[in-house]
Amino acid sequence: MKVMVCLKQVPHQDARLDVNADGTWIQEDNIKFEINSYDTYAVEEALKLKDAGSADEVIVVSIGPDRVTQALRTALGMGADRAIHVNDDAAAGADALATAKILAAVAKEEGADLVFAGLMADDDNASAIPPMVAELLGFPSATGVLATDFSGDAVKVERELEGGALEVVELPKPCLIAIQSGANQVRYASLKGIMQAKKKPVDVKSLADLGVADSASAAQNKTKINKIYVPPKGDSAEILSGSTDEVVGQLVTKIKELGLL
Amino acid sequence: MGTVLVVAEIQKGAIREASFELVAAAQGIDGAEVNGLVIGSGVGDLANEFASKGAGKTYVVDDAAAENYNVDVWSKAIKAAAEASGADLILISNTPTGWDVAPRIAAGLDCAFTSDCIKASAGDGGYDFVRRVFNGKLDAEVSTTGKTVATMQPGAMAPFEGSSDGGTEALSADLSAGARFVEIKVAESTGVDLTKADVIVSGGRGVGDPEKFPEVIQPLADALGGAMGASRPVVDAGWLDHPYQVGSSGQIVAPKLYIAAGISGAIQHLVGMKASNFIVAINKDPDAPIFEVADVGVVADLFDIIPALTEAVGGAKG
């Protein structure tokens, strides 16, 4: 079974978020990037299948500029077999559907039997890509998945609903599974793994290589970000100031007023 | 432009409040004709209700195959209703159902998609939306071209309270499915019940270390006679078990006092605690979204404040 994992490289969760010059995204120079947290759980889920002997090959795929190589190398260091890096200026700023078309083209070219992705990305919080890729491939899909069971012919998954409820769904293969955060304990890339990863192949591809230059470039976007900004302050908190003792004193007074002391 | 299809979600046998919020979003779009869709089995009465409470003409896919949510069934039913109504905007709630099905529909229709929006309006050749990005730290203004599928954040606007008399129309569609519903599992109850606590002291990623929960967070909760909680990343990392999680996928709480320490305030956490009577947020980052819902904020290292507060609370009790 050939397993593909979709990866996105996103600004580090603690990165400073300054809006860029044209006000449409954040300033990406001089900030640290990392693998989208949800995607790390997806990589782990794929590697567990490989450890169990169910997956023959785990391929990680990412779209983006040169810096994305680092995310792919990290996943290779964790144990993925090979990587595909779609590095094409025409894909920069591609909307969700264009991005999904690129990923679906890779999955088709590779003949993936199973596609894993993270439920959403930590930067745009869109949770758009995985079901789109599934639809474009004609695969059944499930999102928000916290547990998988590959013991039968169909894959049995548990999707997280609200308030702690789970929905159990069976998906015939080939299928796509979008993993929810917390689904597993993500392994780190070991030193040995990182050394081995240097020898593993990273195929760099353009949109033309994948046959989607006309359909999936950012120029085809149907959805566009016009402006991003710090949300207007609403009824925000009264910020307490002073020394630690003074602040603590004010808090104790508030707690007393609530009748809790 | 201007025909909106609002997809209802049914929860515990009733149309959920978030669906009436979608109606409000649709009704708020200048010049829009609003149509509803109800999917399920034995849902005729609910479709009548939706049609009369603002959703306008409401399509109903009433089929045994739709008794439980199924992504393929919903996707086909929504596409059929979009075609029948000539909708150029399909609105779905950003719930586990919405994020599962909405992008599939957009890809199937090869149309624009945006999710988790807090505002929707008519645009130039499409629609304009406002949505949160970077876990609520920034807002984005998004515009779409042509036919659009969008999900709206539950709780972002008040439910529609007007009426309409659109009537219903039964719709049949090929509802064959690849995915198969098996069952709903409800988590077994555990000893931890945050919903009954008067005081909750919750820690987030900013606590930084699993040992600090029993060492720093729990003692303050104990001193206040309350319970300890956590945000999702803490539970995801395995530092605390799921029953401690406050948020849309964990416990929805409303204590008299909620202290959020080292919690930035991702939307899913805010949904779970913003009904608390009094909220204190302690965070080093002055721009953390948690300060938007807190009554009182302290911009400081929680390790300076919490132990001192624990001691002061102990002293005040004498």
Helix content of chain B: 25-40%
Determine the strand fraction of chain A and express it as a percent band. Answer: 25-35%
Largest sheet composition of chain A:
9 strands, mixed
Task: Give the helix tally of chain B.
Answer: 9
The ordered string of helix (H) and strand (E) elements of chain B is: EEEHEHEHEHEEEEEEEHEHEHEHEH
- End-to-end separation of chain A in angstroms reads 61 Å
Radius of gyration of chain A: 21 Å
Spatial separation of the terminal alpha carbons of chain B: 68 Å
Q: How many beta-strand runs of chain B?
A: 17
Give the structural class of chain A. Answer: alpha/beta
Radius of gyration of chain B (Å): 22 Å
Shape of chain B: elongated
Question: Structural class per helix/strand content of chain B?
Answer: alpha/beta
The pLDDT mean of chain A sits at 96
Average pLDDT of chain B, to the nearest integer? 95
Question: Strand tally of chain A, please?
Answer: 13
Going across the biggest sheet of chain B, name each strand in turn.
9-8-7-10-6-1-4-5-11
Number of helices of chain A: 6
Beta-strand level of the residues of chain B, as a percent range? 25-35%
Oligomer state of the chains in this structure: heterodimer
Shape descriptor of chain A:
globular
